[in-house]
Amino acid sequence: MRQLLVPLLCLLPLAASAQVTDTATYLQRMDSDGDGKVSEAEYVQWMLYAFDHMDRNGDGVLTADELPGGKGRPITREQQRQVIVQRFHKQDANGDGFLDARELSAPPR
What we know:
The protein has about 110 residues and is mainly alpha-helical. It has helices at about 1-15, 25-30, 40-55, 75-90, 100-105; strands at about 40, 60, 75, 100.
């Protein structure tokens, strides 16, 4: 299951960031309260956008026919949310509970 979640997670920013071409724009679009940084809640909301878009029948589960390539085990929205939260904390290099532009642009750790 984890092997499938990681590739799916890598696709989410691409799907959710249509028309975003630089880190500043990416930060601005994720930063819903406009404070110049991205909280865990903002990050999760932004990243789950792609999941919700791919979940064509709206049942909270991505099945093989909804996954890129049409293959793979089902993934629930909650399972994906947990992976996204873990990724947020890995990206939060300074441990302050927020992502700034530098942390957003850094390669996943």
